[in-house]
Amino acid sequence: MMMRKVLIACCLILLAMPALAERQLMDRVIAVVNNDVILHSQLMERLTEIQARYANNPGILPPEDDLKQQILDTLIMEQVQLQRARSAGISVTDAELNRAMTRIASNNNQTLEGFQQQLASQGVDYAMVRRQIRQDLQIQQAQERFVARRIQVTDSEVRQYLQTQVSSALEDIEYRLFHVLVPADETDARDLAQTISDRVNQEDMDLEAAASGRTVQDLGWRDPDSLPSLLREPVRGLLTGDASAPFESPNGWHVVYMADQSGATAQQITEYRTRHILINESDGLSQQAARELAQSLYERITEGGESFSDLAREYSKDSGSARRGGDLGWNSAGVFVPEFAETIRNTPVNSIAEPFRSAFGWHIVEVRGAREADETFDNLRQQVQQILFEQKYAEALPRWQQEIKNNAYISIREL
Question: Could you say which of 3.90.870.10, 3.40.50.720, 3.40.50.300, 3.10.50.40 is the CATH number of the domain covering 174-262?
Fold first, then answer.
């Protein structure tokens, strides 16, 4: 019986071989990238995927020949980045890949098993999806290593942004600070510093009394940017009358005390809960086609009743928020680019603004909530640092991609 099964299996394989050979003969190399090749079948798979994505708006896509060329450019860029990742020893473990697949399923409100079943019902090979996601993660890690880690946002850049985009009143912030040092050569220096901090914060003791005869240094009034780097993190978030947790330097253990604050250390602002869909000139779309797609999605949501979050996951080019259905969380308007900030200020809660353009592309934004909040300087600094980082990253990534592409051997054959 076993031999009969083997013979049947062999016969089936032999019967399948002509069709398999025909597929292999039909496929061909369309580009060489260093030691790797890009096949015609890879281009056609990506073409089919894009055409399916825009099935409801086929007219916005460029002519097929132009689209194929743009897809080939994308495949080449993916390949040079993947090669750079591999040459740097960047790999993705099975555990990392499994976590990523679970996140993707969760973002689609599914279990991993349910996600696999959905792919199977659509005729998509789950193993192929895992291979693609593994490659995507390798590329992301290469971008993190060679681009993101090299980006620096300076204090002066943050200050300039705060003054021009958020509020010029922030330049008036000042702290009145006192400082106590427990020398490193004292026995249990850290514990002694912790005792000083606890006496102030938990027992409401005066700093001089809590210091038990140690010198209390008056640092005077300081604006946040003039503080020594050693003190900037410890004072973050301190309220008047608070002592910091102990922090160490080569000289010993320090405690800093916030005696007073002046200026706009906290101001009443409006925060907005928003989500958005970003459409730009990727996937070969022209600027006009991107605008038309944004308008079409806006109408599908506002008139057709389709899910904002589902369309965000499918179409938005802001990959960070797209995974969350476009959700941007709570933010003050000032941390966004001017066009975005003006739009959310003028959009009623639970309303969706008509598509508008910024430097990043076309946006569809929904304002889901608004609240008044006390915004501190330190919180704003953190938000602005992230905004400036993302702006620099958006500029640095294409430069790095072009650099490694220029250093690669690329030979393009007939499409």
Answer: 3.10.50.40
